[in-house]
Amino acid sequence: MEIIISETKQVLGKIAAQKGAELIRQAILDKGVANIIVATGASQFEMLNELVKEDVNWALVTAFHLDEYIGISETHPASFRKYLKERFVDMVSPREFIYVNGEIEPEQECVRLEKLISKHLIDVAFVGIGENSHLAFNDPPADFETEDAYLVVKLDEDCRKQQMGEGWFATINDVPEKAISMSIRQIMKSKAIICCVPDQRKAEAVKKTVESPISPMVPASAMRRHEAVRLYLDKDSASLLS
Length: 242
What we know:
Helices cover 32% and strands 19% of the residues. By secondary structure, it is α/β, with parallel strands linked by helices. The strands form two sheets. The chain has a seven-stranded parallel sheet with strand order 1-10-9-6-2-3-5, with helices on both faces. Helix 2 links the parallel strand 2 and strand 3 (61-65). Helix 1 packs across helix 2 (45-51). It is globular. The model has no long low-confidence stretch (mean pLDDT 95).
C-alpha cells in the first residue's frame, strides 16, 4: 500500500484523479477499452470533481457502481444513483455505466450485476473508507471469503450514523438498514485501487486500516493484501498514523 498525504483534500482529490486518469488512459492504450469502479459519498467529492476534467476518452470506458441503499428511489437526495448521474455520468458520458438498482428484488439484482461484472477485468477501482473502516458497504465484520460479486448487507449503527452526519438523511431512522454492496473480494480483483479518504473524522479508521492486523473487523485492512493500492489522505485523516 502506497500512502500519499496532501495538505488539503482539494489537493488530495486532484492528484488522486490525475493518477486514476493515467491508469485509465494506459488501459485504453493497452487494450482499447477500460473498466472502472466508481464510489460515492462525501469523501469522493473532490476527486470526482477533478476526474471529470481529465483528458480521458470516456466513450471507451465502462463503469460499475459500488453500492446502493435498498428501497431508495433514484430521485431521493441520498441515492447513490442520483449522486453518480449528476457528478460523473452526465459530465463525461461513459461508454456504459452499470448502476446498482436498490428498488427491485435485491438478490436478483445481485445476480444481474455479477453476470455483468464477471465479463470485465476492472482496471481501476475508485473507493473510500467509512468511519467504521468499511469498504463499500461491507461493515465489520465483513465477509472476506465470499466469491459473490455483490451482496445484500445490513448496515451497522456506526455506518448509518455516518450517513446521517454527512447530511444525506434528517434522522437515523430515515437511513435504510440494508444495502447492496460490491464484495471485498470483487473489489480486490481490480488491477489498481485508488482510495481517497479526507477529513479528521476518518483518522481513526485510517489508522486501523494501515496499522491494525488485517481483519474482517477492519474491512478496509483487506486492501493491504493488494499489490497496487494508493491511499490518498489529507493531513487531517493522516493525523493519527504512527
